[in-house]
Amino acid sequence: MMRGTIQNKRVEISQEDAQQYLKLGKVAHVATVDEEGFPYVIPFVYVYEGEDKLYLHIGNLRESHFWSNIKQNPKICIEVCDMGDLHPGKKYACQSALVYQSVVLFGHIERIEEETKKEWFFDALLEKYGNPEWTFEREGYPIMPKIELFEVKIEKLTGKINNGMYH
Question: What are phi and psi of 140, to 5 degrees?
Fold first, then answer.
């Protein structure tokens, strides 16, 4: 089975490094498949604190392409990456090397309805993406009933890094 196998072992990173990178990543590209077999990819902000669970949410779009897809097939694939510079090849353009880091994970997604988990998610989301100096007029999350929180059970996680020229 090819799923989750890195063919170029030179760029493969350890599970620990892949988990650390996933914690620090900013945008998760989440792939689902619709009932006709067409893939659909959409970007998400997310929370990952380690181990085998990742969390993401959707707003008040109760019927969306993403929501429809995961209701009929909970298998998903997520990719998080950063792209750096292109290092020019010495003799030929085709020997150029791209600096990058990425992780890919495969898993199953399920809806989480616990209000305390939703509150935890928003706290973690603000900690990850927000500014500690922000102040708000009121506490709490009144929009919680309008969002759907999802937990992704990670079954396979791989990561790669390329620091540029090696030839």
Answer: 100, 175
Q: Are 100 and 162 in contact (CB under 8 A)?
A: yes
| Distance in angstroms (rounded) separating the CA atoms of residues 65 and 29 | 14
pTM over 0.85: yes
Residue 138 has pLDDT above 60, yes or no: yes
Task: Give the pLDDT confidence of 90-117 residue by residue, as tens digits.
Answer: 888 888 888 888 999 999 999 999 999 9
Please choose, from the candidates 144, 141, 142, the residue with its C-alpha nearest in 3D space to the C-alpha of residue 112: 144
Name the DSSP letter for residue 35: T
Amino acid type, 59: G
Q: How far apart are CA 7 and CA 36, in angstroms?
A: 29
